[in-house]
Specification:
alpha+beta, four-stranded antiparallel beta sheet, single chain
Length: 258
């Protein structure tokens, strides 16, 4: 779901310049010529678009090491904003193309980045079309854990506001707040301040369940095959179970038993 990567080649860093942006400032305007590629050096930025009804839709979040702007379109289809104070390396797409044509490793890296970006966009679209508000927020927490790595105390820092989360998931601010508080009430997470969430997973709680035991906690029986277990582990439900003991959420477990 993410495209976290370091610069594909040491020469890559010499192609452009690093610019600083303050929180909420615009980095790229919608419909700007797509002549440049961008790498987040530090901080967090987002791609977004204002919809006709005046609502903002966030298309993606990008953290340090992430690259965006690789699309082949002539103009940018979305704007880019700084979620926090950020530094972004900007370099000409033409220079990167020339480097890739003479360096196979760079070409392979760029192909991998583009493929992962397309997959991330597809996952995001499916998330908006086919899941409930609770499932969207659980999948968002999973994505943040995968991309930012929790600290040793299981605390996940979230640089974005709840409004940003709502605009990313196609929800209202009130719905995001309600679901997060409900997850905290049921013991899945602990909200720490305005921008941090602590995972209350099975490891932190000293339970130590195996994946098969977690599967049984949701479905009421052990997986019939190892393949079935592995398929479940890579699903949003399985990932959530491994992160914060999905059995405590009960919703999917009740659906599975009904």
């Amino acid at each position: 779901m993410s495209i976290q990567a370091q610069s594909p080649d040491p020469f890559f860093q010499h192609l452009g310049v690093v610019k600083s942006y303050t929180r909420k400032s615009e980095i790229v305007r919608d419909d700007d010529p797509a002549n440049y590629v961008y790498e987040v050096v530090n901080g967090t930025v987002c791609t977004c678009k204002m919809l006709r009804e005046g609502r903002r839709q966030i298309a993606g979040f990008y953290f340090a090491g992430d690259i965006f702007g690789l699309e082949s379109a002539e103009k940018h289809s979305v704007a880019v904003e700084a979620i926090t104070n950020a530094q972004v390396r900007i370099f000409k797409k033409r220079a990167l193309t020339a480097l890739a044509s003479s360096n196979l490793e760079v070409a392979d890296q760029l192909l991998a980045l583009t493929t992962r970006e397309l997959a991330r966009k597809q996952d995001h679209l499916l998330l908006l079309l086919s899941t409930t508000a609770e499932e969207r927020i659980i999948c968002f927490l999973i994505e943040m854990v995968q991309r930012t790595s929790p600290r040793e105390d299981d605390l996940v820092d979230q640089p974005m506001s709840r409004r940003d989360i709502a605009d990313y998931l196609g929800l209202t601010l009130e719905t995001v707040s309600r679901v997060l508080w409900d997850l905290e009430r049921r013991g899945a997470i602990e909200i720490s301040g305005r921008r941090s969430i602590m995972l209350r997973n099975h490891s932190a709680n000293g339970r130590g369940e195996t994946p098969a035991e977690l599967f049984e906690g949701v479905y009421g029986h052990r997986p019939k095959t190892e393949k079935k277990l592995q398929e479940w582990l890579i699903s949003p439900e399985g990932k959530a179970a491994m992160l914060f003991n999905l059995t405590s959420l009960s919703r999917w477990g009740e659906m599975a038993r009904s």
